[in-house]
Amino acid sequence: MITIIQITLKGIFRDRVFQGIMALAVLFLFIPSAASLSMRQVTELSITLSLSLISFILLLLAVFLGSTSLWKDMERRYTFSVLSLPVSRTSYLLGRFFGLALFLLMTSALLGTVAGLVIKVASGIYPPGRPIVWSYLLLAVIFATLKYILLVAAAMLLSTVSTSFFLPVFGTICTFLASGITQQVYEFVHSPASANTISPFLKTVATGVYYILPNLSGFDLKVNAIYSIPPSGYGLGLTLFYFISYTAMLLGGAALLFARREMK
Amino acid sequence: MLALDIQNLGKIFKGKKRQIVDALQGVSLTVPEGEVFGFLGPNGAGKSTTIKCLMGLIRPTTGSANIMGVAAGTEASKRHVGYLPENPAFYDYLSAEEYLSFVGRTFQMQESLLQRRREEALKLLELWDARKRPIRGYSKGMVQRVGLAQVLIHDPSVYILDEPMSGLDPIGRALVKEIILDLKKRGKCVFFSTHITDDVEKVCDRVGILLHGQLKLVERVDTIMTQGIVGYQIRIRNSDGKSVDHQVTKDMLDGFIAGQVASGNEVVLVEPRRKNLEDLFLALVHNGAGSSS
Asked: Which of A160, A170, A250, B255 has the fewest CB atoms in 10 Å of its CB?
């Protein structure tokens, strides 16, 4: 599996799509000046923009690399040569996943460092109302990365059943969009306000979808980082447990489906 | 030990609109170690399907196969095999050198051995000068050579090559034949598919002919060549010193020669006319086409 991880990383670093997406990181340079336009809360806005930019870059990488990694190997017939080596399909799939996950971690470490410098500069010029707690900022970046690693697992699951590029890419985008609002939808359909407006059938469907789709709202620690609010240790533990178990389920499903897939 | 043991292998593909393609039907075949086996058949006969079943790329509908006594398609069986896919494609962002290192590492080769074998393979296949360039810049023939190099690098017991000569120029083809003969000398089993009979005649011990997913014939190539005498070309020099060629059937040979000698003519040349592998192959294909239509 280690060899597959190495090959995956090499492939990403030599990929033009990756280089194009990473060029977006240049936008960090403009954050202090863009934040200064707000006149107040410049540091808070710098943190918001930095975390949002990290999130956006990681989203693009997760969607495009996660969705195309397996698909490209099958489309370009690389799987014929790789899967005939003494590598099990599960090792290959996990190697690809961990390669991408490691890459997202490396990217977020790099972007997080740049963001830290940008925020440091902004806070030096415009001291914030509340002191910056760097560990909260670090937690926000780490949990954002975990969120996109989970999204990569979802993209890989979709890749194992698809013969085209569309299902993995658009399926992952839809999963991401839906996963950000499932919590609100769930809370709404179970609220007293919805009792007369939502049919029991729709309520059951919404509840089912809530349990099937990933719930990514718990990974968002932006508010904690921006306003230096201590995050709940229990909540973090629960989110971490959710990340591990949900990712494991996605990868388990992907491994089962990929093992059955025929390389015609 | 049997290098390959295929028993009653069958594969049905289910397509869209419930279309069913019976790609492989009850193929049984054994290939011992040290033998070069040519798997001959026209396009669409099921050669690649058989090979993909052996490599675990597709699951057979019926039957089973073993490679060196281990169930085909498993990690353990793949350790014994060097496989060259048809029209191979390799991670094109890697160089030939990097790709061979990747292959060697999946076989858990020691780094020093890997380096030595990598150099040997690259030099043998004339890729040494291009070894650091990404594969995406290679010609089709060069990619095919990378495929052959990755097959050789871990020195397996069994070589499964799907159309190994495809995309190669005459020099490359000659080189591949040389490599196959060398592997044979070293006691390796080479199982290769082709639709070019000449390749089989030159390097194979045995040939199997696959038609419409059915194995129609398995025979020693030398038997086909010796049993395939259909007649003789006889050159006669008459009393005027003129030479004339005659085509004589196998049964009439003795009587014809006796008659010529009795007439005072000199028999200058007797050359057997063989039905070669291509004739046999074409006859089988035409009979098969006739019976299937």
From this structure: B255
